[in-house]
């Protein structure tokens, strides 16, 4: 029987009350219109370090004995767990060592250091970093703070479930991202103890379906590069998998396209900045909207620590995917005033030219003709079709280069 109970979660809530953010649960009206349900977002991205990891890390550190606190703690993480442990260790006066893989983003390394932790960069993979962290813990007598498979960590994350019930006591369904399972295990324990009829659904990145596979008796085959790196876990926890097996109704999988769309829509439609893992619940809902139609649903937004450059790329790709930025290849006669005529046709069709590229040397056209690649801002895919028809009528053969999906729509 798990040591994570409603009572342990209530104790955690009381213990960390003054040390973490009591995050809001906000209505998501525009996304709700798209999905056909009543939707609310639990914004754990507003924690001080930008993710729900603050809760479990704080409660774990508060429960160290005097000798453990004096000697210090060690954790292995490439991101959110590292920052949660480092921040609360500094607050509580506990020495902290964080082992991060050699490929960890510079920004996350420096942010973790800024919280006062000693950062050790070692390991070409997360597994190698975990081994190194265990070795350092044994050598230096440090307490290892596991990111998810620990009853104090799980109880700390479970405090989110208590807050959801306070804010929305009549919820039908809660959707929670799954990495190692600490977050959903805690939330499910709290919710099911108070409201057994609530449906709890988990979401994993399709490239990392480790919990789904383990619970179906399969060997985990996780691997690959995913936008949802915060839940890219190859093997779920031993404690967490049993709680999930008992309390979680189903585990959904979100592919990379859905994760990108989730990040994009949250920013554009709800003005919520989230990382890939934080958007997993919305990604799953967008993939299966019929499952949530007419229901009152809460989606857990677990974190907002996304690299700004990556975010800009996701948003730009989203505009292309929606047909609001398109790249056209247009064939013209290579002589004066043709480019002006081309621009006039696009302008008359309501398109806004962003960039123009001439293709003379490497284009597969006759010597007296040229290909022009034009990046155009548009309203939607139907508007793109109107622009292409206008170009055709104006004597400019053209085709879409932006994406196969866009070409298929045209």
Automatic annotation (TrEMBL):
Pfam families: ACT_4, PALP. InterPro entries: ACT-like_dom_sf (IPR045865), ACT_dom (IPR002912), ACT_ThrD-II-like (IPR044561), Ser/Thr_Dehydratase (IPR050147), Ser/Thr_deHydtase_PyrdxlP-BS (IPR000634), Thr_deHydtase_catblc (IPR005789), TrpB-like_PALP (IPR001926), TrpB-like_PALP_sf (IPR036052). Pathway: Amino-acid biosynthesis; L-isoleucine biosynthesis; 2-oxobutanoate from L-threonine: step 1/1. GO terms for molecular function: threonine deaminase activity. It catalyses: L-serine = pyruvate + NH4(+). Residues 327-406 form the ACT domain. Keywords: Amino-acid biosynthesis, Branched-chain amino acid biosynthesis, Isoleucine biosynthesis, Lyase, Pyridoxal phosphate. Its cofactor is pyridoxal 5'-phosphate. Its EC number is 4.3.1.17, 4.3.1.19. NCBIfam families: ilvA_1Cterm, PRK07334.1. Catalyzes the anaerobic formation of alpha-ketobutyrate and ammonia from threonine in a two-step reaction. The first step involved a dehydration of threonine and a production of enamine intermediates (aminocrotonate), which tautomerizes to its imine form (iminobutyrate). Both intermediates are unstable and short-lived. The second step is the nonenzymatic hydrolysis of the enamine/imine intermediates to form 2-ketobutyrate and free ammonia. In the low water environment of the cell, the second step is accelerated by RidA. Belongs to the serine/threonine dehydratase family. This is L-serine dehydratase. It comes from Aquibaculum arenosum.
